[in-house]
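Hey, sorry to bother you again with one of my protein questions. I've been puzzling over a protein and I'd love to understand its fold better. Take your time with it, there's no hurry, and the full record follows here:
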Amino acid sequence: MCLNLMGHLCLRSYQHSVPISITWQDDSGDDDETTSPTDKSELHCTIKDLSLKLDDLGTCNDLIAKHGAALQRSLSELEGLKIPYESSEKLKAVNERATLFRITSNAMINACRDFLELAETHSRKWQRALQYEQEQRIHLEETIEQLAKQHNSLERAFRSAPGRASNPTKSFSEGSFLTPKGEDSEEDEDTEYFDAMEDSTSFITVITEAKEDRKAEGGTTGSVEWTSTDNVLDNTSLVPKGPPKVKRRVRIPDKPNYSLNLWSIMKNCIGRELSKIPMPVNFNEPLSMLQRLTEDLEYHHLLDKAVHCTSSVEQMCLVAAFSVSSYSTTVHRIAKPFNPMLGETFELDRLDDMGLRSLCEQVSHHPPSAAHHVFSKHGWSLWQEITISSKFRGKYLSIMPLGAIHLEFQASGNHYVWRKSTSTVHNIIVGKLWIDQTGDIEIVNHKTKDQCQLKFLPYSYFSKEVHRKVSGVVSDSQGKAQYVLSGSWDEQMECAKIVQSSPSSPSSDGKQKTVYQTLPAKLLWKKYPLPENAENMYYFSELALTLNEHEEGVAPTDSRLRPDQRLMEKGHWDEANTEKQRLEEKQRASRRRRLEACARGCGSEDEKETDVYMPLWFEKRVDPHTGEMACIYKGGYWEAKERQDWHMCPNIF
């Protein structure tokens, strides 16, 4: 009977039990961390169930005590009987064990009661602490948003203050020669500025008279003059675009008008690596990072022109203009390109009209890294491995491309190396999004030791400089300045040949600048106008519109075949988000399989993936110029395309 009763009580206790699970969640998602009334009611139900269990244990204890006492009485009665000595000793041992069992059961019940009281006490403390943290977080978010709005209002008030020029013009006297921006300028009341942290230029430029005028005045030139080879720099950017042999598309479907609160997603991501944050396609543009990298070739004609330069410093001017031109498409492009899948490729086979072949491959996923190789039939090759490092800082987003860019001209053997500058997206919380390029770029010709120092000036509240200004100096192998470069990264670049240089008088703060006397500037590069209706097509350039156009014969890993990107381009954003999640889960499963295959003999998980995954068309080598490990094209892609043999390509889509 006692056993039946115990079984019934245990069954009742099991039926009333509620499983409690604690889940550790990554903060990279958009999970709502506030405690809802449902969570509180569930907690109360759990405490109630624990109380019921304690009552059941108390009932069991009473039954054990009752039947234990009866058992001890029976044993005592047996001890009073005349039984053999051995049997009496055994009865005493049984009686002692029964007593110990009753004491143990009482201790268990007391411990359970103490645990329940402790759980009730601490649960109330935890609830109060959690509620306090939630209130503090909400208050902090509201404060940050209010500060951002006040900051924006102060900026508008400052720019509209009387006596402040809205569009100051500049001459070539401060290392820049640009026409002032007209009414088509994109700056408006939502544009944000910030202080420049150092002087805008370290030199002053003065335009000297033409050669004939100086001779008429009896003056002496005293330095370098324009030579016949300088004609290579004339009309560099005015290369006519012939009709393409293959008709390319000139438009894509208009961007849908979907509203989405960026701050609601980004507020949980401050300080985190952007590539590790799951983002919906609403923040993307229908191009992958590999295609954005290929866009750098839009002004390839600058390098085609540089092939014919007999002077290495003149060639450096064109290379510098090419490096700046790659930023011209970013001025309106605040959307994020798709992160390529590991092993994803993108080819640009345009030998007929552009005279080049380009191949990109995603060689690492964390950190995201892409290898790129370009061959031009005009006599130059370009290669790079770019790793994108990005951080969200609350009000702005910093994007730092890491890695060296190599450019080599076959005829002369001139080998140029440089690195990209930092891109910053501002007004993440409130206001109009805008992008800026800041930092210094050093271009080095490793054969001749010529150098070019380019400076991308940031926006400043109080500076009178032209917006998005770029200035620089080209020096020969002896360190003597030969050319002054000037312009803006979103419009044009010019160069002026230096006639002579001299130090200026010290300024009030004791700093001294170099004064360069130059000949009139020549235009190196000018941005192509955007296609009609570009504002509804993600501000794509003429080349960008063709990059995702379907082509036959490409590798099965090509970005053009990525389904979520294609769905987004067609305007099906909901389907694109679903497909994006499927592809990301497929990639995670592939990574798990690679790690399991290399579970023994490897270090950390990142080292495991680095050791296991091998790029298909590129291989790691030590760069002799930078001393860094970089992915270099090992060949075979274009031969595989010729044979249409893609059996070695992974199934990533």
